[in-house]
Amino acid sequence: MNKKQKNEMLWGYLMLLPLITGILVFSIVPFFQNIFYSFTNLGSFGQYKMIGFANYSKLFSDTKVWIAFWNTFKYVIFSVPIGISLSLIIAVLLNSKIKGKGLYRTLLFLPAVTMPSAIAMIWKWLYNKDFGILNLVFGTHVSWMGNPNFVFWSITIVMIWSGIGYNMIILLAGLQGISPSYYEAAEIDGAGPVAKFFKITLPLLSPTLFFVSITSIIGTLQSFDIVMMMLGKTSLVEGKATTAVYMFYKQAFILHNKGYAATIAIALFIVTMIITAIQLRLQKKWNID
User: Do the beta carbons of residue 211 and residue 170 sit within 8 Å?
Assistant: First the structure.
């Protein structure tokens, strides 16, 4: 390289240095620290002792952790497909020629930029047994967040509602990237709206759908803030709705078993990587077919 190219490369690395430093300090180093601490009995004051695979043995026999992981998988199974389907329907409608599209997009995107604490407070008020709007509308007196039969579905609805806006914007961007010439050619051949959706929109939108599905699944696997704030620390039905990250928080910051909490985090990381790898494999097969 000549002097000018070396100078440009130097300035390029200098511009990247803050980002690289942040990734190292807040992501990469803590990740490897977490792996190390999963083999210790790290407590509240930073003192630890190597205990080998004892935490992992405890993990496989801990019923509460397995229930938390099962609840997390249920959130993924129910909230992700429903949320993406609703987002796709809304994106298709907003991509058509309707009045007030800008206003609708803004209103639907608001939950995506709203703090989880605000979302949790609003929905806890809606779900309130004594003066909640939901019970007033249906004329019931149901404890939506206190009844073990309803708490999981109540939180699932909040997850779907809070994720629709973000997914809608991503899918809308994908729809606007599809050339209108495809639809014009299909209309000439006599294709109707349903045929155009399944023959043109879905195939061309599949890369965006895969991206949305991957991010939605990873986000749902990491669900914590809304669950934590809606359940609280003393909920009697937390076993019906708690998640893996919630269990990590409880072990680390309430029970002060930080070494065991690190093990739960590693297990969740492995599960997330496996699911993501399966999705990427399916995406490649879809593209080949």
Answer: yes
DSSP state of 27: I
Q: What angle do CA 67, 71, 73 make, to 5 degrees?
A: 115
User: Which tens digit of pLDDT belongs to each residue from 163-221?
Assistant: 999 999 999 999 988 888 888 888 888 888 888 888 888 888 988 999 999 999 999 99
Neighbours of 208 (CB within 10 A): 20
Task: Write phi, then psi, for 40 (nearest 5 degrees).
Answer: -130, 175
Confidence band for 39, pLDDT divided at 50, 70 and 90: very high
Would you list the domain boundaries of the chain? 48-288
CA distance 283 to 155: 30
Contact 152, 144 (CB under 8 A): no
CB 106 within 8 A of CB 99: no
How distant, in Å, are the alpha carbons of 91, 105, 163 from that of 86?
8, 14, 10
In angstroms, the CA 47 to CA 40 distance is 9
Whole-model pTM: value is: 0.88
DSSP class per residue in 22-58? HHIIIIIHHHHHHHHHTTB---TTS---B-TTHHHHH
Q: What is the SS3 assignment for 90-150? A: HHHHHCCCCCCHHHHHHHHHHHHHCCHHHHHHHHHHHHCCCCCHHHHHHCCCCCCCCCCCC
**In this structure, what DSSP letter does residue 222 have?**
T
Q: Looking at domain 48-288, which CATH architecture does it have?
A: Orthogonal Bundle (1.10)
Report which secondary-structure segment, H or E, holds 33. helix 29-37
Tokens 């991206």 belong to residue: 211
Segment (H or E) for 270: helix 258-288
Cα(29)–Cα(34) distance, integer angstroms: 9
Lookup result for tokens 């994908």: 174
